[in-house]
Amino acid sequence: MAERRSPPVRARQLARELRRLREIEGLTGEEVAGSLGWSSAKVSRVETAATLVRPGDLGKLIDLYHVTGSHRERLLAMARGAEERGWWDAFPDVGSDYADYIGLEAETQALRCYSAQSLNGLLQTEEYARALIGMVVDPAPGRVERRVDVRLRRQRRLREEPPVDLHVVLDEAAIRRRVGGPAVMKAQLEHLSALAEMPNVVIQVLPFDAGAHAAMAGSFITLKFPHPQTDMVFVELLRGSVYVEDEMEVYRYHLAFEQLRERAIPPDESSAFIRRAADEM
Question: Looking at the domain covering 8-81, what would its CATH class be?
Fold first, then answer.
């Protein structure tokens, strides 16, 4: 049976925002419960995403917190998004963790990615994706191809209106590692050069001689949303993934990316670097 997508990340986004709004109003959970005729436990469940807030209850909360206009509409849209199903649900091999990420990627305004060992999925050619996925996914009949299809479908995000604003810092290791062999990697690097010409895509290379840096621990992706308090960081692990949602921790990743960006080769020079690497394949 296909694994049904769960909504914990989107729900946590909404829950965190509701808690922030309560704190801005200077209210305690008990005071909110008293104003709305709820139990304190219900307020706690809503603010910890232990339960999805119902539309009627959400309306009462945002009225209490004096939220109006576009901010109000965004909160209502977040609540709807926590329950909606996306195109990725048609693929039986997309697990809940991956589906959560795709859903967030579909909604984000901007992505800031540091890729240490392999290229971000939005940048991959079909052949590169197939070679990479085949190494990390159980090669059951059709499973790799379905994962490749999902990855290529995600890439429409670069061209849909409005397109996502993508800024990637690639470690030189991701450029030099011959995923799929020299021919596949050469085509992949030529594809990178073409993508770098898009107005919404910036690609920089962090060369080996840049030395140690703030992201030696590995790759990460910062997802930026219309309201900065809902930004988050995605860190993929060998098995599973982690979302960093604490505002201060997200800010630290932002600073790390800025350091990487400053130490990386400028975009124009990076394109030339990638073309030279392709010629060397």
Answer: mainly alpha
Q: What is the CATH number of domain 107-123+155-279?
A: 3.30.870.10
Cα–Cα distance list, 213 to 12, 186, 216, 243, 251 (Å) = 31, 27, 6, 22, 17
Domain boundaries, the chain: 8-81, 107-123+155-279
Asked if residue 51 lies in contact with residue 14, where contact means CB atoms within 8 angstroms, the answer is no
Q: Is-contact 122 116, C-beta < 8 A?
A: no
Amino acid at 154: R
Of the listed ranges 76-80, 95-99, 148-152, the least confidently predicted one is: 95-99
Q: Is the dihedral of CA 169, 172, 175, 178 positive or negative?
A: negative
Q: What's the rounded Cα separation, in Å, for the pair 100 and 273?
A: 34
8-81 and 107-123+155-279 in the same fold:
no
pTM, entire model: 0.79
Output the six-digit token pair for 67: 């939220």
The SS3 assignment for 170 reads: strand
